């Protein structure tokens, strides 16, 4: 299981990595492993501004559909278009090519409330 230290984690198994004034969001290695083979990603919120913990899309696997929760307040700038044809990238490279969305974090985005790698590891090992 992979736990990069350059991202922050949520209790709902999303990660966020800030790069300048944008941030990438995806699901964790643990989440993709628990879900199984991802067959479809739906992000209908591009262009919207959402609050932390609001649903920004869904991820579909063979047996179920799971909601995706925004880690911090922000505007959804774009979705990873590559996933339309290759949703399996989320399984293969969840912290790299398998990112889900880019957001512009709001001025009040609370990154400090998120988990670091050690805290996230402790959460899933409970």
Automatic annotation (TrEMBL):
Protein task: The glycine cleavage system catalyzes the degradation of glycine. The H protein shuttles the methylamine group of glycine from the P protein to the T protein.
Subunit structure as annotated in this protein's UniProt entry: The glycine cleavage system is composed of four proteins: P, T, L and H.
Cofactor: (R)-lipoate
Example GO biological process: protein lipoylation
Keyword hit for tRNA processing: no
UniProtKB keywords: Lipoyl
GO (cellular component) term, any one: cytosol
UniProt cross-references to PANTHER family, sorted A to Z: GLYCINE CLEAVAGE SYSTEM H PROTEIN, GLYCINE CLEAVAGE SYSTEM H PROTEIN-RELATED
Family as reported in the entry's similarity comment: Belongs to the GcvH family.
Name assigned to this protein: Glycine cleavage system H protein
Organism name: Bacteroides muris (ex Afrizal et al. 2022)
Co-factor: note: Binds 1 lipoyl cofactor covalently.
Domain of life: Bacteria
């Amino acid at each position: 299981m992979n736990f990069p230290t350059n991202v922050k984690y949520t209790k709902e198994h999303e990660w966020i990595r800030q790069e300048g004034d944008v941030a990438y969001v995806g699901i964790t290695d643990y989440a993709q492993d628990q879900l199984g083979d991802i067959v479809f990603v739906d992000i209908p919120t591009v262009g919207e501004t959402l609050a932390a913990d609001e649903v920004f899309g869904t991820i579909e696997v063979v047996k179920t559909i799971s909601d995706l929760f925004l880690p911090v307040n922000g505007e959804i700038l774009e979705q990873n278009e590559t996933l339309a044809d290759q949703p399996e990238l989320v399984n293969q490279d969840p912290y790299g090519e398998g990112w889900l969305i880019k957001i512009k974090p709001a001025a009040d985005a609370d990154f400090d409330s998120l988990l670091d790698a050690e805290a996230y590891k402790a959460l899933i090992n409970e």
